[in-house]
Amino acid sequence: MRTFPLTIAMLLAASATAFAAPPVKEVESAKGKVLAGENGMTLYTYRDDHGGVSSCYDNCAKNWPPFLAEASAKAEGAYTLVERKDGKKQWAKDGMPLYFFVKDKKMGDITGDGVKGEWDVAKP
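User: That's the sequence. What structure does it adopt?
Assistant: Structure tokens below.
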């Protein structure tokens, strides 16, 4: 009977690990594979971000919503977390915070790539 509590503990640990990984996937676009959120929408990086800090707030964040992480999220490999001014966590890849673009409407859209020479699709 001692194995039952151990089995439950192992299952709980495994499910916690499954939710710790960043919820990203690769999708096809006109420029090849790009990173996307679970919803299939393309992720972008902002060239004005430096040192693992987001500089996209207010109107910028309305057009480029940050790719927010759950409070329990944990960094994994190239994916890290940055803390925003409001205390929320945002996913980053290779130290660059990740964002969506409001004008993308379907999986694989990359309408934000190159906007104002400051935004780039996030590559796997």
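The first strand starts at residue 24 and ends at 29.
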